[in-house]
Design a protein that fits this description.
By secondary structure, the protein is mostly helical. The protein has eleven helices and two strands, in the order αααββαααααααα.
């Protein structure tokens, strides 16, 4: 037994030294160190404001440009009420999810670094597989949406220039297929860059692009209203059949729900926050500020867009050609969408690898 104990101790010493040499801290190597957190990782430095910035960047996407059409389907009363209702639902579910970052105790428990870590710690069993599969489908749908939306924006740039040169009555039909293929080729190239999704400037670029095209859309709507165009009805679109009205109302609800979605990265955002105070407390404050700011932005975009176009509001303010001029500004806004979605696709691609680990 003594020889076995010595052999076992030697093996553990080798493992410990190997980990230290590889830069992985052994248990106890970080105790008492101010540069490490309780899990041995480099001390996190995130605050309420950095987490809020991440939330706003994640939530405000190209879906904001479809909100005017969504408000048009629901009308002046139901539309804003639904927007506010979804903000409360998003805040409440995010409030609950923030308590899952540590398990079993939300303050002192073991950290869960990803959404699937939280599922594993709190549910376990086959629920890991089914939640992972659902998350995979969610990410798949998001990446397909990014590809289609990016190609539409690239085509919109070509069509905008065509309209400017040949007039608004020219069809200017352009196929989306070459642009979808180009987007895919770009993603294949970027996916070869190690940790591309973790580059520090990626979130900054995404935030700038997101606010740029959203602000341009709102600004053009305000300009159209000041030009003497003020539209909208209490009941929304009313010159269609009842069946189509119901169908489009559900589409509008889907657009609004998609515009608020960021649950798949909430845990990852929370993993950047320093402690003390407890991470869940900070995250709840950030969620409140972020959702409130986003809701105000969405209300402005949706309501101003509906007021400018009324029941004829396009499905996308920048690609549906609700605006033709200034064409260079429309081109710039669509370019911002493309750049934003190129980065967003890479972030989704990285999450799919994390989920793959749990599914297989």
């Amino acid at each position: 037994m003594g020889d076995l104990d010595v052999e076992h101790g030697s093996q553990m010493e080798i493992i410990r030294k190997t980990k230290d040499e590889e830069g992985v801290p052994s248990p106890g190597s970080f105790l008492g160190s101010d540069s490490r957190d309780d899990d041995g990782r480099i001390r996190r430095t995130g605050t309420v404001w950095t987490a809020t910035a991440h939330i706003i960047t994640a939530v405000i996407g190209s879906g904001v440009l479809s909100l005017a059409w969504s408000i048009a389907q629901l009308g002046w009363i139901v539309g804003p009420v639904i927007l506010i209702s979804f903000s409360f639902v998003t805040y409440y579910t995010s409030w609950l999810l923030s308590d899952c970052y540590r398990s079993p105790n939300p303050v002192t428990g073991k950290r869960n670094y990803t959404y699937m870590d939280a599922v594993k710690a709190n549910l376990g069993g086959m629920k890991i597989f089914f939640c992972g599969l659902t998350q995979y489908m969610n990410l798949l749908g998001a990446t397909i949406g990014y590809t289609i939306t990016s190609s539409i924006s690239m085509v919109a740039i070509r069509r905008s220039n065509c309209f400017h040169q040949k007039g608004h009555n020219v069809p200017c039909h352009i196929s989306n297929n070459p642009y979808m293929i180009s987007f895919g080729v770009i993603q294949i190239f970027l996916s070869q860059i190690p940790n591309f999704d973790r580059l520090w400037w990626l979130s900054i670029v995404a935030a700038i692009m997101s606010f740029s095209y959203s602000t341009i859309g709102i600004g053009l709507g305000i300009g159209k209203i000041f030009g003497g165009n003020l539209h909208g009805m209490v009941e929304g679109v009313n010159n269609i059949t009842q069946a189509k009205k119901v169908w489009q109302a559900f589409q509008a609800l889907g657009n609004i729900a998609f515009a608020y979605s960021y649950s798949m990265i909430l845990i990852e955002i929370q993993d950047t926050i320093r402690s003390p105070p407890p991470e869940n407390k900070t995250m709840k404050k950030s969620t409140l500020i972020g959702i409130f700011t986003t809701t105000m932005f969405y209300m402005a975009s949706g309501c101003i867009g509906y007021a400018a176009f009324g029941n004829n509001a396009p499905g996308n303010l920048l690609t549906g050609f609700g605006y033709y001029n200034p064409y260079w500004l429309i081109d710039f806004a669509n370019l911002c969408i493309v750049i934003h979605l190129i980065g967003a696709y890479q972030v989704c691609f990285s999450y799919s690898h994390a989920i793959h680990f749990y599914l297989y």
